[in-house]
Amino acid sequence: MQIRTFALGPLQTNCYLLIRNGDAVVVDPGGDPSAVLNVLRNEELTLTHILNTHFHFDHVGGNRKLAQETGAPILADEKDAYLLETELGRGGFMGLPAIELFEYENIEPGATSFLGLDCAVLPTPGHSPGSVSFHFPDAAAVFVGDLLFNRSIGRTDFPGGDLDVLKNSVVGQIFTLPPETVVYSGHGDPTTVGDEMRHNPFFTDFSF
Questions:
Q1: Are the C-beta atoms of residues 182 and 141 closer than 8 Å to each other?
Q2: pTM of the prediction?
Q3: Which domains occur in the chain, in start order?
Q4: 80, 129 in Cβ contact below 8 A?
Q5: Which pLDDT value is given to residue 7?
Q6: What is the DSSP string of 54-68?
Q7: Other CB atoms closer than 10 Å to residue 201's CB: what's the count?
Q8: How confident is the model at residue 96 (pLDDT cuts 50, 70, 90)?
Q9: Which keywords label this protein (predicted)?
């Protein structure tokens, strides 16, 4: 599986394009997806799904255009649906323009597959109630949104955030993955599960 990264939107959110055997999946198109669409067209790729780790505006800003242009369904956890009625989800937050609303399908935590690969949809609330992570074991990759960053964690001071819940999500769902698993976050550079277990300052009180 190829993984390409695009920094989209006003907050330069990481949008990931996953490619395998002529098909593709996008994770968190946070702004104008024109660059992603160009790759899809130029390489004659079929976009099968648009995955959202959560419904904050900087992760969903390109959803509608990407879905309209490709016909790919948008999948997300419906526990974040309420955010689309708020500035935090719809936009207008920090004076930024509102996003175009979109239709989506609920995705349940558990085992599924994308691109012909096994994928575990992990419930990882804390940054938002419906935050989920997408783990591809055969690719040694997990896409976590704003749950976990390189040497940091996601904010929990927004409505629906909870620091203890977030830490438990990281420890229970992410730190149980193989240590070589690459963690692809919503912002910043990738890291690994093992590196964060050893060096992330927010988990020094935990024994692994």
A1: yes
A2: 0.97
A3: 2-199 (3.60.15.10)
A4: yes
A5: 97
A6: ---HHHHTTHHHHHH
A7: 8
A8: confident
A9: Hydrolase, Metal-binding, Zinc
